[in-house]
Amino acid sequence: MDAERQDSATRTIPLFPLQTVLLPGATLPLHLFEPRYRQLAVDLLTGTVPDRRFGIVAIRTSAVREVEDLDHVHPIGCAALLGDSERLPDGRFDIITRGERRFRVLDIDTSRAPYLVGTIEWVDDAPVPPTAGRAVEGLRDAALSAHAVYCDAAWHRDSWATPEPEVGPGPLSYLLAADCLLPLADRQQLLEETQPLRRLRMVSRMLRREAGFLTKLRAVPAPPPELIQLGLPASLN
């Protein structure tokens, strides 16, 4: 499959619609059993799809059983880089992916390959103003504090870690959210936000809200329904 850049603004990329959101910098394990996605794995591993890269895009509603057009998926997705993979004796694959760059889906082609192929454009963050140093520091501290409160309520202390100090405000919000079991709508909202400082404020608010729920319920979080079993038919896998 040809996934070369079509021009300076757009390119094509295989699409894998799921009932979850991949965030930049986060890892996502996938179990591929449907023939079209087994073929995608083969194409990624053999170089038919360049750079071992494809796109993950969230389905708008579980009522969608087959993605056929733009209305069935959220407009912003995340490129996934194929990492470790294992081909099982019956032809299924277990793979590990890592989120990279965000994209906007412009068109979906259902006939070009066994799997969906999307025409996309990359979506980057707006630059943080050079004069925003004090705001960055305050929002970073607030987000790290909210992350610690959530993780203390949800996980064993040795199962999570604070991001390194050199992590910038752009990727920091994604790293903090990746540690936490946020609903799909929250993760999609974070994915679509292109203002890094606003996204830090958003993730801080989300994590404190969820930590409050956990403290009141005195329970550890269960995975959101969309993460319980990605191999279910509703995932279109």
Automatic annotation (TrEMBL):
Pinpoint the Lon N-terminal domain residues: 10-211
Q: Which PROSITE patterns match?
A: LON_N (PS51787)
As recorded in UniProt, coiled-coil segments are: none
The record's listing under InterPro entries reads: Lon_prtase_N, Lon_prtase_N_sf, PUA-like_sf
PANTHER family according to UniProt: ATP-DEPENDENT PROTEASE LA (LON) DOMAIN PROTEIN
Q: What is this protein called?
A: Peptidase
Q: Which organism is it from?
A: Amycolatopsis deserti
